[in-house]
Target: Iron-sulfur cluster-binding protein, Rieske family
Amino acid sequence: MPDLDRSALIENRINSGILGQWYPVAKSVEVKSISPLGIEVLGEKLVLWRGDNGKVHCIKDQCPHRGAPLSFGRLHEGHISCRYHGIVVSGEGVVVRVPAMQNCKFEGQKIVRAFEVTEIYDAIFIYMPSAENEKAPRMVFPKEFLSDSWSGFLCTAVWKTNYRYALDNLADPMHGSYLHAESFTLAYGAKEDLFKVDHTENGFIVSRTGQLGKNFDWAEFEMHDGTMFCFLDIPYPKAAGPGGNMRIVGFVLPINENSCKVFFWRMREVSGIQRDCWRFLYRTELESKHWTVLEQDREILEAMSDDVRGNEKLYQHDVGVNRIRQTLLKQAKSNVDFELNIEGKS
Model:
């Protein structure tokens, strides 16, 4: 294949989302056992529901009969039935029953694509397989999810912009001193600095060289087999109560090429009565202030042109942005080259 065609495939893969990754797709409370939930992930329509035992199922949102969306259907006995003609499909993608025809040859066949699911810390994650990694690797969770010493809240929002802009935003700490300069937590520190990138065992940290602990001064990205997330600390004034800085643990879901969904866990390392105070303060005083900051990010990213990356003039502050883009490029090349290798052998 010509390099030009390969380059286009790689760019398209970056733009639509990397395969072979675990992605958060919904809050746990959104997935119920009484009705299905239709979602879109990397441009593919999927449907989620809870079985009778509480287990979450995810299959392609398309009836194998005539292609009607299964998310319009009903749930019974742990399965999902199509509203159009009543065909019943299990969470493993097996056609359980075709009520309109006795002894239909499709009964018992696995003909709907099913996806692996895991659930942790109030969120549902699904694995989007790649040609090179069809079976999901064990998901590596942020350490904060596994520790009783951390307490937090999951915040999600749909942004009408490509997911790459959301990742760039997280890898760009300098914007905090400008875009969020009038906020409750990010009004402090210098507005001029240099940045550096340090390698870690599983990723990298981008940080300011002139200050730490004053503003959004650093962000760390972790990359594991099939998982990528970031975390950063936001300094809290004493008025925010006990627990020190607020940590944000972030994942970004590519919905399609024009929209994404951010999943941010806002967390503090607190226990006992301090934990109760933090949770009370967050719900009553702090949550609305944090939403204001998140809306500032959304508004400016949604207003940016889709093709802005072709006209950028990057400078030293953008070392983190450059590094996350290199990471996506490497992952996309791995996806595409494996697919082309299979195609060449067939």
About this structure: The chain has a mean pLDDT of 92. The helical segments are 3-16, 163-170, 176-179, 272-302, 319-345. The longest strand covers residues 246-256.
